[in-house]
From TrEMBL:
Name of the protein described by the UniProt record: Putative lipoprotein YerB
Ranges for domain DUF3048: 57-196, 226-334
InterPro entries, alphabetized: DUF3048_C, DUF3048_N, YerB-like_sf
Organism of origin: Gottfriedia solisilvae
Domain of life: Bacteria
This protein's UniProt keywords: Lipoprotein
Amino acid sequence: MLKKTFCIIAISTLLFGCQHEGKSVKTVKNEGNKEEPKKEEVIDKEEIDTIFAPLNGLPISQASEQRPVAVMVNNFHLARPQSGLGKADLVYEVLAEGDITRFLAVFQSNIPVKIGPVRSARDYYIDLANGYHALFICHGNSPKAKEMMDAGLIDSLNGLIYDGTLFKRDPNRKAPHNSYILKEGIEKGVEKRNYSFTEKVTPLDFTQDPVAFDSSWNSVNEVFIKYSYNPDNNVTYKFTETNKHFQRYQDGVVAKDALDGKQLQIKNILIVESTHKFIDKYGRRSVDLKSGGKGYYLVDGKYKNIQWKNVDGRIIPFTLEGTEIEFSPGQTWINFVPSLSTVTIK
C-alpha cells in the first residue's frame, strides 16, 4: 500500500488536495478493483475557486462568517496614533463637533487584539454601521444616538456601561483619549448580551482585474482635505508608486497603527460631498447620508469625478453615467465633507 499525506481545503462543498508545483491533486475513488490504491487526478489550480474577504476583496484561506464590528475611533490629536486601524476593512471619516473628525472603523476579515481609543457615538455613525449589520462599539453617545441604541436599533457595546470590564483604560494616555476595546472584550460582550457574532456577510463589489483607466481619469499624487483652520485636523493623502497605495498624514505626521508601528496602506479613497447642518448649541450636526451627490474616487494614483449613492445603507460610487464602480482589493477610506471646495487634488 502506498503511503500518502493529504491536506483538505474546504471551498464551498468541494474537497481538494495539496498543491504540487502549480497543480492541485484531487483524490478520487477507484470504482474498479477495490484492492488497487486510490488514483490521483491532477487538475489545474485555476479550477479551484478563490475565496475573497467580503469587505476588502483580498484573498483569504477559508470562508468566514464573522459578523462585522464597527468601532467609533477617536481622532483628536492626543488620540494618535490609534490602535487597530491597519486591520480595518474600511474606515469612514466624518465630522463630529467643531472641526474634529471621528472614524467609524469596520472590521470583518481581521479583528485586532486592541482597538481605539474609542469615542462616543453620533446617530449618523450608527446609520453607517447598520449598512453592514455590524456590532457597534462606542464609549458614550449623543442624545439621538442614545435613543437609537436604547430602542435596540443596533446591537451595541457602550463603554459607559462596561468601562473597566469590556473596555480598558491605557494609563499612558489621559481621558477621554485612553479607552480601548480588546478583542476578548468584544467576545465577552457578545456572549453577555447574547448577540449573534456570525452571519453571512453581503460583500462589497470588487474587481480582481487591473483598473482600466480611460480619459475620465486623471493623475493624482496628493490630496488635501481642509476640515479646519487648525492643521491638526486636516488630512493629506499621498500616493506611493512603489506599492500602489496611499499614505495618510495629519499635521505632517504619517498615520501608523500603534499596534505594530506600520504605516496605513490605503487602496481606495472616496471623498463624498453631503449636506451638514448644526442641530444644537453644542455644535452637533446632522449629516445627510441618503441623498447622494458628487465626489471623487481615487485608486492607483488616479482619480475621477463620481456620483455617490446610499445603497442599502452603504456608500457606493457610480460613474457620472450611472454605472457602479467596483473597488480594488484592499483597505477603503470614505471621507465625508460638507463641500468638495475644501478638497485640493494635485
